[in-house]
Fold this protein.
Amino acid sequence: MDKKKYGDRFSRYLFIDEELGLQLDISRIKFTDSFFKDMEPKMKLAYTRMQELEKGAISNPDENRMVGHYWLRNPEIAPDRSIAVEISQTIESVKRFTKDIHMGKIRGEKGRLFENLLVIGIGGSSLGPRFIAEALGSDRNILQPYFLDNTDPDGIDRVLSHLEDELDKTLVIVVSKSGGTIETRNSMEEVKYFYSLKNLNFAKHAISITQPGSLLASISRKEEWLMGFPMWDWIGGRTSVLSAVGILPLALQGINIDLLLEGAKRCDELTRKENTSENPSALLALMWYTSTGGQGGKQMVMLPYKDRLELLAKYLQQLIMESLGKELDLDGKVVRQGIAVLGNKGSTDQHSYLQQLLEGPDNFFVTFIEVLQDREGISPIIAEKSTSGDYLHAFLLGTREALTTKGRESLTITIQKIDEFSLGVLLALFERAVSFYAFLVNINAYHQPAVEMGKKGAREIIKMKNQILSFLQSNQGKRYTILELAHNIDREEDMESLYKILLHLVNNPGHEVKREKNTGENNPFKDLFWSN
Ligand code: PA5
């Protein structure tokens, strides 16, 4: 590594904004000196399209929707007065409701003060709030947050076991923009059942966040839940963290949502600049573009050196991969775009996959997150005249250096400390980088057409399971091979799925399906299944 060369690039390209407490070092990405000039026409177009998006253009043409997450932190820029009013009123009503809960004006059915928060939602209706809740959580949380984001029975039990004797002190927030997501519905029904087992009325502890007119909205109205907050058509799930989806649970937890919104707003203002060298989101998008060849040729490894940021990679994985992972571009051309995101935290990950990053295939670029403040207060000296924080920082710088020595690319984002304001800045920084990148590669970042495929497949499997069960139940005690079953229910094409469904049924009480393994050849299709 030519240290002088990198030193020159560092001072030449380092982006600094003292007011936001933000730095971005792009010098270790291998772009040429003419890169920014070459990209200027594409960037000009990206700026224009970003302006149009913020002014309310239909930027999600497939779903004929506006894309309005940037208005959430600055309602004044919303294209329509009624949208601006709705956003401001929702923020106010989140604050009022939170105050009523904290002050004990609204209590559980038995009159106890709420102390826990159970957020039920999946994907964009969970990851953002969970990332911030974890990053800013402390033993000073006013309400202690818990999350259910799956339909895994054991996972549900694990979370509910913490709340077993606390249900009357637990506020449940069910979050679903569409209001019909299966995993969310299932967790909600399990939690309802849990409340009923304790002779408690779920509705008196429940809040919904959903689109007006959705199934969830009508359930919550019919059952007279405690409260409902809106989710709007013009907000996508993965960019909903600063709508009621995120600000309600976070405010209830005790997090200062004004500062979070302010951080995002200030970063939006900064990243509206059309001079690329002064715009860190545009710089990020361009670094992704050059490093991945504009076609996802490299993976993004997130390495925040801070335990509190451990969920950042998970959050960004969805934000980036669901937004950018697209088969077609806006002109309908097959492009198969996307950037794979992985990572957890440093220095922990140095002891897991760094070995491969240094010596394996050069198919990634690292994004380091450096947090300048180690902790509140003074740290003890541990060894070599150094604190634990000095070591953490040394590991970050050492790893950066090692990667560069091996010719591997990296970016470094620096923030002052972990607080509401800087996390707001980080959220906006990445949301806008995603928008810019999508414009650069001409894709719709705001739809997720392929997600429906997996859901459709699952619906078909449930249908098949019900067919087999009803066949077995009407022929109780009679034993069948998979082939016979397939034939009887007219599913000869689906033998493998049938076998897997039956094995699952056999392994779970309730459905009363039994199996006799054939003892001869190792052929699963010769096993016998029956119901009794
Ligand atoms: O970002 C997205 O759009 C998705 O990840 C959704 O948030 C996720 O599928 C959950 O959808 P819903 O909020 O409708 O339950």
Observations:
- The mean pLDDT is 96.
- DSSP finds 17 helices and 13 strands in the chain.
- Residues 122-125, 176-178, 181, 184, 236-238, 322, 448 surround 5-phosphoarabinonic acid (CB under 6 Å).
